[in-house]
Amino acid sequence: MITIDLSTFYEDGQAELSQLPAYVAQALSLVGQGQDVKLTGAASIWLYLKIAHALHGVARTLVYDSPVTGEVVIFNHNPF
């Protein structure tokens, strides 16, 4: 399982919409093809949504994890 803490993608505590392509590229470079991925960390909902969309078709499974919800499966394309 590859864990991506989205809060590490930006400095000064706030993601910038203008940097969205760079955030997506960073996530894709961390994941590779066919991996199980967990997204976590303090980040804007638009960043979570865009990264999740970018990972669809790339990651085998995607899980969101927060202290409030615990792990929530976003998608699972594992055939087994």
From TrEMBL:
Concerning Pfam families, the annotation shows: Cas_csx3
Source organism superkingdom:
Bacteria
InterPro entries, A to Z: CRISPR-assoc_prot_Crn3/Csx3 (IPR013409)
Task: Name the chain's protein.
Answer: CRISPR-associated protein Csx3
Name the species this protein comes from.
Candidatus Entotheonella gemina
